[in-house]
Amino acid sequence: MDNQRRDFLKKTGLTGLGIASGAWLKTWSSPLIDEASDSIVSGSPFIINQANQSVIGSYGEWAAGLMKEKIPSLSFRKKEFTDIKQWKLKAKNRLKERLASPTINKIPDVSVTKKYEFDGLHFEELSWQLPYGPLSEAILIKPLNVKGKLPAILALHDHGGNKYFGAKKLVKTADEQNQVIVDHQKAIYEGRAWANEIAKRGYVVLVTDAFPFGSRRVRLEDVPESLSKGQKDNPETTENIINYNKWASAHEQIMAKSLLSAGTTWPGVFYAEDRSAIDILCAREDVDAKNIGCGGLSGGGMRTVFLAGQDERIKCAVCIGFMTTWKDFVLHKSPSHTWMTYVPLLPNELDFPEILGLRAPLPTLVQNDINDALFTLEEMKEADGILSEIFTKAKAKDKYKCSYYPGPHKFDKAMQEDAFDWFDKWLKSK
User: Fold this and answer.
1) HEC states along 389-414?
2) Where does 66-203 show beta strands of DSSP type E?
3) CA distances from residue 163 to 16, 29, 41, 214, 250 in whole angstroms, order as listed
4) pTM score > 0.85 for this model?
5) Phi–psi pair at 20, nearest 5 degrees
6) Among 70, 102, 199, 210, which residue has the least CB neighbours within 10 Å?
7) Which numeric CATH code is attached to 111-427?
8) What share of the chain is helix, strand, coil (3-state, %, to 5)?
9) Residues 52-94: pLDDT tens digits?
10) What is the pLDDT of residues 341-376, one digit of tens each?
């Protein structure tokens, strides 16, 4: 590892970052860290995807063959599905069963802990208590001095190998920021707090801490000493942030096993909590509940797939840097991803892009980076083809768009502007 990259990783704790094509690449991985060298030894984006090799060796051909040339049983591409409403009802019910989301019966009581102005915007720091876990915190942004109802965006933050922070990765609330956040935004957002930027276009923007990030993260003092090994996640020093993120990376497999043992799934927890955030947005007097969108990069893109695929209150969706097929995970890319993506048995019934396709004919944009090491380009294009087929069959070809951008895994200014234009097209009153 060269000195520049080593220093960067040590400084920021963004251990999910690598170098590709001379640029910083966020891999949205869960790497295991070699304590002696700080090098990435697992979850590497540099997996060589040779045509005759797979990440599970000689078992790859067999595993891929389980789905080879087989359209999943609930795919809208199958000839027997002709009525989109009936198909969506059947497929969504099965997806709901597979996700096994925890129950959140009512809209949480929201507290406004702070209000202020910055960057020409109005900010509110919010909190609420879900039926489980620590207090949820969020940041709401909207233009200053605007009356009446505005369209709204649920901005879904990335993973980034950084669970210490959640919503703060997408916002800027003061001139002085934690250096970890500054470096994170430079690495994958071209230095922008994109939640601020879209709010300036005339939206109410809500950014929540996802499970288990930021305020929702697992506290080291709450786990057995044998797991925490005496580490502390407070105070908010760079050293503690780095150490916490390393610990949280290794803890992911424990969390995933526990969730599955409890009869739920990680995407199911995301879905339940993101739906609650939509409930909160829709209940606000300053939000036009008929014009709500969502979107995010990487882990935020994955959450977009599950949320926008099921909740039709999302009138416009933008999935950034997280679109491929289950086959891609089977053969090539499972080492580059966390445990947060997978739903047992679902690949038999829906391919990954078909989860997002459940929202057809509602407007949907997918943004891919051509040199994204998280996915193979071939399978990104395969997913694009699947979504195109679904929207065409739903007589909504104009409501789906997939764009490809040069470079590694990112959501840069050019991509942001295209995404914002897509939201404007479908959410703002004509």
Assistant:
1) HHHHHCCCHHHEEEEEECCCCCCCHH
2) 111-118, 121-128, 136-143, 150-156
3) 11, 12, 19, 6, 12
4) yes
5) -145, 135
6) 70
7) 3.40.50.1820
8) 40, 20, 40
9) 689 999 999 899 888 766 899 999 999 999 999 999 999 999 9
10) 999 999 999 999 999 999 999 999 999 999 999 999
